[in-house]
User: Fold this.
Amino acid sequence: MKEEKNVAPKAVVLLSGGLDSTTVLAIAKAEGYQCYCLSFAYGQRQEVELERARATAIRYGASEHLVLRGDLDRIGGSALTTEVAVPKGRSFVEMDAEIPVTYVPGRNTLFLSYAMAWAEVVGATEIFIGVNALDYSGYPDCRPEYLEAFAKMANLATKAGVEGRKLQIRAPLMEMTKKEIIQQGVALGVDYSLTHSCYDPAADGRACGGCDSCRLRLKGFAEAGLTDPVLYQD
Amino acid sequence: MKEEKNVAPKAVVLLSGGLDSTTVLAIAKAEGYQCYCLSFAYGQRQEVELERARATAIRYGASEHLVLRGDLDRIGGSALTTEVAVPKGRSFVEMDAEIPVTYVPGRNTLFLSYAMAWAEVVGATEIFIGVNALDYSGYPDCRPEYLEAFAKMANLATKAGVEGRKLQIRAPLMEMTKKEIIQQGVALGVDYSLTHSCYDPAADGRACGGCDSCRLRLKGFAEAGLTDPVLYQD
Assistant:
């Protein structure tokens, strides 16, 4: 029997194991891509995210799942990689007011740079990333103008770009609210019990419910008229 | 006695331990910067480069020297990170003709992304990189238009950029020939016996003399009327 070659286009999907990136993976699969999932162990405190990313990649039939260690913890400068306290119970107005301490310098740039390198090696034409400008405008590297500048740089950096095989950066959640993201994911059959969003979970993996990420997530489920299936601490 | 604060501007210097980046470090020091040297163990075969980088950072009084492991070896796609044979004895015309197999997908983008993150954390306003367009035009991520695109992206990616503290990418060797680089370095007192350029050294660290990098280096010393002080295999 002759083996058929899978001619579906390839995409590198940045997969943190959170609600947004899991929804993005479902979108990429629904669009027919062979998905090469890329996750990072960058010294973040929530290693539980990586476990969820592994389960999610298997569930969605990823062609490959690569977990890279990026040494961001040795650069420091963020509450996600050092021992700075994660803020709790902030209002949505407070979240919008300034760049939060959970901002990791260079994080999306490093993620996208590794994705760009891997895309070139496997021959992927797209990178999918779950950034979102509406619900969370505090991170400079989540804005459309940033992603456009990255794509422009990437197509000057690579052999593929120079030879005219342009790489696209796809951020399908960019203009969506958390409510809309959840509704889209549910429509695509996403099992959100596999996802993890909390910046400061308990040792058993249960979410804190009070950090910015938990609060935005809970608000999204409430607005969608759904119950968040993950476990929260009392 | 009151401790005086060092108010010299800070720069992150990408330091491979090669001839070019060592010259760049000397230039940054001569311009009065506090130098934060950044090196990478990215699965490259020539770990000897890193030993030279360590010695060089100490010799030039770097404020800090950080060696990061970047996991590029797990992405693959290059003769520098996998077991593809390094080409030997190619003419300079052959070198110019195409993107060589020693091209590492995403290498400079990853190096600059880590440098950008570290610059933000330490408050550096410049990144120095030893890329050079004239002697070696085969790498897409060594061109001025690439560096300009990276700087534009970086200033959209970071808190510093958003707040108006613009980061500059400095490539002082960009328009120089290898001969001119060596002459500049000698004028600044660079000890080139500490540098390493060979893509395929012997186990004892001696250079092969035949790879593209050795050939360009030897040509530069010859044109400058100098003898290369590093050891070559017979």
About this structure: Chain A touches chain B at residues 66, 68-72, 74-77, 99, 103, 105-110, 113-114, 116-118, 120-121, 140-141, 143, 145-146, 149-150, 152-154, 156-159, 161-162 (CB under 8 Å).
